Amino acid sequence: PRSTLFPYTTLFRSLGLHVIVEHRNERGLFYSIYGHLDSSKVSVGETVQPGQTLGDVGLTGMTTMPHLHLEVHRGSDPAEEGLHAAAFGRASAINPMTFIERNGEM
After folding, report:
1. Dihedral of alpha carbons 43, 49, 55, 61, sign
2. Distance CA 19, CA 52 (A)
3. Which of the 8 DSSP states describes residue 67?
4. Which pTM was predicted?
5. 91 three-class SS
6. Which helix (H) or strand (E) holds 98?
7. Distance of alpha carbon 62 from alpha carbon 64, whole angstroms
8. Among candidates 64, 13, 58, which has minimal Cα distance to 39?
9. Which residues pair with 46 in a beta bridge?
10. Among 13-27, 29-43, 63-77, 86-100, which stretch is predicted with the lowest mean pLDDT?
11. Buried b (16+ CB within 10 A) or exposed e, 17-36
12. 64: buried, middle or exposed (CB in 10 Å: 19+, 13-18, 0-12)?
């Protein structure tokens, strides 16, 4: 998958520093979001491999304890959507465990 890194922004300020990874397969287009990172280990447009470290767990954004926030979304490319919040609305969210069970490793 292609990795896209978005630094702390007003759009996702609650997630702090986060990485968005694009996943394309026969079932369609999916995005996984990893939030509250202390640092990122990937660059925009980089191809990442399953098991690769994307960043360090942190305390950025709106949180009170260090942890990793994981979301998986089905749908449109956020770059094409102009990075509007609707690109990652609740309607596009799917259970990460369901995604992993159906698609294997992230």
Report:
1. positive
2. 13
3. B
4. 0.77
5. helix
6. helix 96-103
7. 7
8. 58
9. none
10. 86-100
11. bbbbbbbeeeeeebbbbbbb
12. exposed
Confidence at 18, pLDDT banded by 50, 70, 90: confident
Q: Tokens standing for 42?
A: 């990937």
pLDDT tens digit string along 19-46? 888 887 777 788 888 899 999 898 888 8
Around Cβ 52, how many Cβ atoms within 10 Å?
12
Q: For residue 72, what is the enclosing H or E element?
A: strand 69-74
Q: Using H for helix, E for strand and C for coil, what is the string for 16-66? A: CEEEEEEEEECCEEEEEEEEEEEEECCCCCCECCCCCCCEEEECCCCCCCC
Distance CA 27, CA 74 (A): 10
